Amino acid sequence: MTEVFFSCQPIFDNELKHWGSELLFREGLENKFPSVDEDTATSRILSANFLASSDRKADIRYIVSFGESSLLDEIPLALPPQHLIISVTEDCLPTQDLVSKLRSYRTEGYRILMDSKAMRNEWRRYLELVDIVSVSMERSDPSDWEDTIIQYSQQVFLARKVETQEELNAAQGFGFALFQGYFFEKPQVVRSEDVAPSVMSLLDVCIVINRNPDDIDTLTNIISKDVSLLYKVIASSNILAKTKSNKISNPRQAVVYLGVQALRRLVSLLIMSNLNHQHAAQLQSTALTRATLLSMLTLESSDFNQDEAFIVGAFSMLDIMLSKPMSEIISHLDLSPNVKKALVSKEGVYGNLLSMCNDIEHANWNGLVHWCNHLKLNDKKVLGEFECARTMTADITASMQV
């Protein structure tokens, strides 16, 4: 696992209500600009903040900066438009491809933010694409913008670096509608944990998508072998879900729900985030062994389903990987009550099976016999299946090492 740091600074509307927040990648707890490129910074923010967190509020927007490469690769589409404001970085030029892509984003419901320099440079011809214009109170007097704000009434103007009551009053008086700065709150640097999918898994998915995008079974098989990738695929499918009527209870459902294009964007995001750290390799191996074992079992219980059992095993180590309570991690995943109950409190049939796995891993044979008797399983057969699962996992993880 790896630590990811980002600055979170709130933005307020004219009634001084929290309108949204701007997320900026940071390399540590100090609020300093990072040395990594814009695309890498953006992808790390999205991976850690949206795919490994349940802190999103339904009515809050997040401003995230995107460079040309991320915009052309359709990385913003990994998140729903109601949550995301696309901030176009200043080094982006209005090429035909980029202008066309921004038009498509707005058609999809996304809003575009640009710095006030866009009013004077090459972007001036395309201001109909801009929904929000940000103006630094450090570089401009708010009175200088009164006529512009009146002229461009279709745009919303954001006053940045507001540091005093006088600056706020002036900005409000001259027509600004959004406000950000130390007057309200200093940016907080947030630390988050992120789990790294195997680079080989990501590349394998890319290969299958490019060669045979309709091969759902192969895609599902690859994703199911990487705990982190499986978690992010299911998290992404829930984030993008327009309805909660159907439970996403197995990897294949998640792949089908996302579709090839959304899956391609997700994998591109994860590759760009440079998440090739293998610090959690042992934890992922343990989780995958559990998932494989549980999906091999046959129980005489109406509460048992092999697909759900696989998810339970695969996600059973996420609280350790992410250094967060399990209840927080799975709160935004549309899993069945039995799966959630097992992961959070080790209750029910799946919870019993996780306890059994833990006893096997710690060579607690009395515990194994207890759970096998309780679940009407043959302990010797379970041990044999565990060894088989461990061998299969070792083969898989060896093939995924980078």
Short description:
This protein has 402 residues and is α/β, with parallel strands linked by helices. It contains 17 helices and nine strands. It has a nine-stranded mixed β-sheet with strand order 8-7-6-5-4-3-2-1-9.
Structure description:
This protein is 49% helix and 14% strand. Mean pLDDT is 81; it is low at 27-35 and 274-279. It has 402 residues and is of the alpha/beta class. 41% of the residues are buried.
What helical percentage do the residues reach? Answer: 40-55%
**Rg calc:** 24 Å
| Main sheet record | 9 strands, mixed
What class would the helix/strand composition place it in?
alpha/beta
Please list the strands of the largest sheet in the order they lie side by side. 8-7-6-5-4-3-2-1-9
CATH architecture classification of the largest domain:
Orthogonal Bundle
What is the CATH homology-level superfamily of the largest domain? Hypothetical protein af1432
> What gap, in angstroms, lies between the N and C termini?
15 Å
Total discrete domains: 2
CATH class of the largest domain: Mainly Alpha
Shape descriptor: elongated
CATH domain fold name of the largest domain: Hypothetical protein af1432
| Topology as a string of helices (H) and strands (E) | EEHEHEHEEHEHEEHHHHHHHHHHHH
User: Helix count, per DSSP?
Assistant: 17
- Average per-residue pLDDT, rounded, comes to 81
Low-confidence stretches: 27-35, 274-279
What is the strand content?
Answer: 5-15%
